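Suppose you are handed a protein chain with no further information: no name, no annotation, nothing but its sequence. What can you learn? This example shows the usual starting point.
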Amino acid sequence: MNYQVFKSMLDVLVKTYKCPFCQADVWENNIEIVWAAGTTMNIDVACPECKKHSIVKAEVAHIDAKMMNFNPNSSLEDIKSNLSSILKKDLEIDQNKSKNSIKDKDIVSLSKDLQLEDIKIEDLFK
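A reasonable first move is to predict its three-dimensional structure. Written in structure tokens, the prediction is:
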């Protein structure tokens, strides 16, 4: 990971992070890099107020501006709009995956059906 990107991520963390337990701000001396490789880092944040620790995972995402139809004349609003639509599509994909996933109740029901003595294969597909 590029040092400037690394430092920028830490600066943003210090500026925006609030302790999830007491909402206190943190400073650079409250942050410890636990692990970093490639584009990802794991950070241990110690709250100066309540003394609790949180683990934050930060990752750099590379965006191909050509694929997003950005050009040097794109306004900030255009860029925000494009990024919003990408995030919305990702959220829709995640929601569709959860709709199509097998639920616990389906497994329990199938298990009960399979224990019946007079079960026919057709009965499983009703």
